[in-house]
Write a structure and sequence with these properties.
It is built from 16 helices and no strands. By secondary structure, it is an all-alpha fold. It is globular, with a radius of gyration of 22 Å.
């Protein structure tokens, strides 16, 4: 924000320099949690349950549990870092502060943007699959309509768009609860088949399947970390955001575990994997009702995911431009909507491009890989910051020194497993 000019000339003080329009602090803990759930759930369970079931079969719920445990370490690191530095473009700011490198900070910011764009593109492809249940239009047309419409909502205003996304989040969570209730009420095998979830000892194929599904499950948990990037629009961010991160991760884990198990018990995993609207099939199989009901809820969930990812990418572009790392036109904030319109438009165009060029699973895999590398860097940044300080800051959530190291190692280990699985798959 520009400063007032304080010099006085012979003709009197010059007029104050105009202040740049700033982001508005209007979000509460409820808004932040709904935002996080909207990113995570919309990007995960409605889109990827079929792909995860195809890789891990009846063991798919374990992949989500394992991913949640690993993500919990990184969530704790983010919770401390956002209290230390409650700014937009959070990850970039954390790495810049830790390594005193503008270039590295900018690189991390660009990774966050790439992550948001690819994630939104994947959700857009998944959303088009559910919209196709109602509209017999070419997939490219559906994808374009979805992306452009949700970019318009994201540009509307942060309070308005997050409240809109919050309402959609309540609906999508209600859909998952409805599915779980239908599964428990209609299928007695939900409990009796629980032993099938655990792989037989020594079954390397089952373990490999869980590991492969675990990479997709990481994609399904993407969202909790995005909460840090609305720090400049949240009231009391040091107190609100760490709690929002942990609540988002906990609620998401419970819902994922239950929904995935209901899905693989109700519908054979191979059939789920072949469907473009997997939860719609599960709902139809459990209730005998038309799949259109669940398809409508899934559309809401996926549209919600697109909105919040576009908001995230636009805020990081804005934050990097404000820091001088990207062109100044990206930090321009509309005086009408109080949102960064140029950054939002650029994000929407990038999302549309990737959604039209790449299939769902490839988008999800690459999103997960970028996420793991980014999380490893953020954990390493916190470890470095903690190592060089003599005393922890007051009134900030603090984790033990081993947490960021464990988070970094776990992320890189999953990347190594992914590489190993890819090499095995290519072997003759």
């Amino acid at each position: 924000m520009s400063q007032h000019i304080s010099q006085v000339t012979a003709s009197g003080p010059p007029p104050a320099a105009p202040r740049a329009t700033a982001l508005k602090r209007s979000l509460t803990l409820t808004n932040a949690v709904l935002y996080g759930l909207g990113v995570t759930i919309g990007a995960g369970i409605y889109v990827l349950v079929g792909a995860a079931a195809g890789r891990a079969g009846m063991h798919a719920p374990l992949a989500f549990v394992a991913a949640a445990v690993l993500m919990g370490l990184t969530a704790a690191s983010f919770a401390e870092l956002v209290g230390r530095m409650p700014v937009a473009a959070g990850e970039a700011a954390y790495v810049r502060e830790a390594f005193q490198s503008d270039r590295l900070g900018t690189l991390v910011g660009l990774l966050v943007i790439a992550l948001s764009v690819l994630s939104a593109a994947a959700i857009s492809v998944g959303s088009a699959g559910y919209v196709g249940v109602f509209l017999a239009l070419p997939e490219a047309v559906l994808i374009a309509g979805v992306v452009l419409a949700m970019a318009g909502v994201a540009a509307w205003g942060i309070k308005e768009s997050v409240v809109f996304a919050g309402v959609m989040t309540v609906i999508e969570i209600g859909g998952l609860i409805l599915l779980i209730a239908a599964g428990v009420g209609a299928n007695s095998e939900i409990v009796t088949r629980l032993p099938e979830m655990a792989p037989p000892l020594g079954d390397t194929m089952a373990i490999a399947g869980i590991a492969g599904a675990g990479l997709l499950a990481v994609f399904a948990f993407i969202g909790f970390e995005s909460i840090v990037n609305i720090a400049e629009e949240v009231r009391e961010p040091k107190r609100t955001l760490p709690l929002a991160i942990f609540l988002t991760l906990a609620i998401t884990t419970v819902l994922y575990m239950l929904v995935v198990w209901v899905a693989v018990v109700a519908v054979p995993p191979a059939e789920l994997a072949a469907s473009r609207a997997p939860l719609a099939i599960v709902f139809e199989r459990l209730t005998g009702a038309s799949p259109r009901t669940m398809s409508m809820i899934a559309i809401i969930a996926t549209l919600n995911g697109i909105i919040v990812q576009v908001i995230l990418s636009a805020r990081v572009l804005y934050g990097l431009a404000t820091q001088g790392s990207l062109p100044a036109w990206l930090k321009e904030v509309s005086p009408v909507t109080r949102t960064p319109l140029n950054a939002t438009l650029l994000t929407a165009l990038a999302v549309l491009l990737f959604a039209l060029l790449l299939p769902l699973e490839r988008l999800a895999d690459w999103t997960s890989r970028i996420t793991l590398v980014l999380f490893a860097l953020v954990n390493l940044a916190l470890a470095r910051i903690k190592a060089r300080e003599s005393a922890a800051p007051e009134n900030t959530y603090i984790v033990p020194h081993w947490v960021p190291w464990a988070g970094c190692v776990s992320c890189m280990a999953l990347v190594a497993i992914d590489v190993a699985l890819a090499l095995v798959a290519r072997a003759p």
